[in-house]
Amino acid sequence: MDLPPFALDHWLSAYDFATPPIAYNLASSTGPRWSVAEICALGDAPLAIDDVVLSYAPPEGSAALRAAIAAFHDSEADRVVVTTGSSEALSIFFCLAARPGAHMLMPDPGYPAYAAVAQAWGLGTRPYALTRETGFAQDVDAILALVDGDTAGVVVNTPHNPSGSVMPRAEIARLAAALAERGVPLLVDEVYHPLYFGDAQKSAAGIPNAYVTSDMSKALSLPGLRMGWIIAPDAAQRARIIDARSYFTISSSPLLERLATHALEHSAAITDRLKAVATVNIAVLDRLIAEADGKLQWVRPQGGTTAFPWLGDGRNSRPLCEALAAQGVLLAPGDCFGQPAHIRLGFAQQAEGFAIAVERIATALTIV
């Protein structure tokens, strides 16, 4: 299969890895950056990594790492399988669900890799629409209305990328139960858990018929570890996932697993810093929207690290994003998500200079 161009990553890579790099990255969906030294220094005793033997790790991940992941989700270690980022977790889920003529239900807008990877495994894709009018909510009844005998699985993402909407755990449980009656598995992508701006939500881990995927890249702000996981609803499915992981990538790096375990054991320090940056920056966005006189509108995020505002006159946002990139402010144009009037705006990575970047956005809105 010819994979479609990954428009979002092409846009991000063109600027984030440029020389010199972009000054204010508001396109990123991660949190504030950490160095290896800062991670090793977390806790009462510095983490030592010079004794790590660079061999294979178990395909399911080390016992210590799985225990730390389970604690993060209030789950059980024997349900966890470590993966190379959540991307591999998604690929495994789609691979194991695939069958001739089947399709996967997924949110629209949503993370572009959902559709591309599902199609790479021979699955059709059927979007369920998230709209401004409903606050980009993932609605149980609307999803179930699209399920039929060819539905191989359903994906929900909460907090949602790019809108920041949140699906309450009780609704996830209702959806998972209804899907179980039809023999359809549910995947819950939780890479932005536990960053919420309203009522905090428990992880969906432990809900029958729900597979939970997450990683160290988004809420845990450590994308360079390339560490993810999938939490299976039962032992039989976990065994199939371990086999798939063994075929795909064999194992993680023991060095990265050691760092990831230490980070997860001190995850409160990482997520506290994330929430502090996000809380300050979302207040700056509140002022931007309030003073934009309708030129920029949004549904305020309920969680996660991104917002999905749109230009009030409905025009394509790419020229605005290109103009701002030339001024050192990186946003992601909405056409990367199939919604050209929108912009994905990340507000959790830029710990310094965020207000300066937003001032440039406000000025650009009056010109372009």
Characterise the protein shown here.
This protein is α/β, with parallel strands linked by helices. The protein contains twelve helices and 14 strands. It has helices at 7-16, 36-40, 63-73, 85-97, 113-120, 140-144, 169-181, 235-248, 254-265, 267-291, 318-326, 354-367, and strands spanning 24-25, 80-83, 103-108, 124-129, 151-157, 186-189, 210-215, 228-231, 296-297, 306-307, 310-311, 329-330, 332-333, 343-346. It starts with 6 loop residues before the first helix and ends with a helix.
Report a brief summary of the structure.
With 368 residues, the protein is of the alpha/beta class. Helices cover 38% and strands 14% of the residues.
List the helices and strands and how they pair.
Layout: H1 7-16, E1 24-25, H2 36-40, H3 63-73, E2 80-83, H4 85-97, E3 103-108, H5 113-120, E4 124-129, H6 140-144, E5 151-157, H7 169-181, E6 186-189, E7 210-215, E8 228-231, H8 235-248, H9 254-265, H10 267-291, E9 296-297, E10 306-307, E11 310-311, H11 318-326, E12 329-330, E13 332-333, E14 343-346, H12 354-367
Parallel strand pairs: 1-12, 3-4, 3-5, 5-6, 6-7
Antiparallel strand pairs: 2-8, 7-8, 9-11, 10-14, 13-14
